[in-house]
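Handout, page 2. Input:
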Amino acid sequence: MIKTARDLGELIRERRRALGWTQAELAVRCGTGERFIVELEGGKPSCHLEKSLIAARAVGIELGDIGSTHPRAQQSDDELGFLPKFS
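Output:
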């Protein structure tokens, strides 16, 4: 399960390497700069969402909509402990 920017970056890096691509090759396929891919794979939390989704799709990661009918949407507060609390 992807819970953080770091999780997404690690998954993208893993898939990119499995495909035998360099960061520069992924950047070309995504229409981004290599620096963006380096930051994305490094888990930079402020990476541009649209570019991140393009990179994920480029390496074969499908991110589906998690609606209220999805089993993971019924998580307890304990399972969401990784999220910051604002109050």
